[in-house]
Amino acid sequence: MTVQEVVAVPCKGVSATKAASVNEENGAINGSSLLEVEQGFIVPDHNAFGNSFRDYLKESERKAGVDEFYRNHHLNQTFELATKKKEEYSKLNRAEMSIWECCELLNHFVDASDPDLDEPQIEHLLQTAEAIRKDYPNEDWLHLTALIHDLGKVLLHPKFGGQPQWFVVGDTYPLGCAFDQTITHRKFLDGNPDSSNPVFSTKLGIYKENCGLENVTMTWGHDEYMYLVAKENKTTLPPVALYIIRFHSFASLYTHGAYEYLMDDKDKEMLEWLKIFAKYDLYSKGRLKINLEEVKPYYFSLIDKYFPAKLRW
């Protein structure tokens, strides 16, 4: 892939106004007005529950459920499982439907891994897309990427087997090598079978340094699934959009810089867009409600531009 194939990051994409403090143990991001994104996107100082964003230690109504989710996720997400499920779901033989039909299927699901959100997924998708659209009006590919980035959560739907939440959502990270200390709820990974594998428990594991993230097996979930759906249905979105879809939950990379030794030059070019996207994905939650009927024609036009009318899922 050439540099020209990666959409250039605008010079004023993000400007720091106040340094963020990060709790290394739980990944919480603290402080008010941490970043001001161009054209007025101000990062709020608390989530919808009045807590710091991604604070997994703060007592709240959702804490117990989030803790239990990550216990199950970390105990069950193994290299063997991820490899098996990627092969199984890459057949795309579950359904045939449009992008918007998939959006509507997500109307009744809430992400159990998210301490900042208790709204249906369609609300989050629209909030993220509209926030990005306001600040990056000329990057229509990014608007659509925001709208569809979580559509892989359709795996929760009975039509797709009604998979458990730990199988679908949560932060992602590489498998086949040592678990980094910055992974959310890292303590639960001590019980993961891969932790005792003599190869998987080493820094590089089965990989070579700078092998490129495209060659790395990640934990299985909605990110990997939607990446496969978009790629195999031959979307015309730029490669960086697929990169964002696949790695938007890889918080230990874009927040802490973990696993950079696995990155190649292509990853380094695309990481800047991933970091920009991640701020909107996180900080737009619970903000202004979006009038669906007003914005629907615009997103329909983008779907028609970048995707076929029907997709295999």
Would you mind describing this structure in some detail?
Belongs to the myo-inositol oxygenase family. Helices cover 36% and strands 5% of the residues. The protein is mostly helical and 313 residues long. Strands 1-4-5 form a three-stranded antiparallel sheet, with no helix packed on it. It has a two-stranded antiparallel sheet with strand order 2-3. Strand 4 (35-37) and strand 5 (41-42) form a beta hairpin.
Short recap of the structure:
The protein has 313 residues and is mainly α. Helices cover 36% and strands 5% of the residues. A hairpin with a 6-residue loop joins strand 2 and strand 3.
Question: What attributes characterize this protein structure?
Answer:
mainly alpha, 5% strand, two-stranded antiparallel ribbon, oxidoreductase, Inositol oxygenase, ascorbate biosynthesis, iron
What is the residue-averaged pLDDT?
A: 84
What oligomeric state do the depicted chains represent?
single chain
Name the structural class. Answer: mainly alpha
Q: Beta-strand level of the residues, as a percent range?
A: 5-15%
Overall, the morphology is globular
Computed over alpha carbons, the radius of gyration is 18 Å
Strand order of the biggest β-sheet:
1-4-5
Level of helix content?
A: 25-40%
Number of E-state strands: 7
Q: If helices are DSSP runs of H or I spanning 4 or more residues, what is the number of helices? A: 10
Largest sheet: 3 strands, antiparallel
Sequence of secondary-structure elements:
EEEEEHHEHHHHHHHHE
Query: Kindly, what is the distance between the CA atoms of the first and last residues, rounded to a whole number of angstroms?
Result: 27 Å
**Contiguous uncertain segments of 5+ residues:** 12-40, 46-54
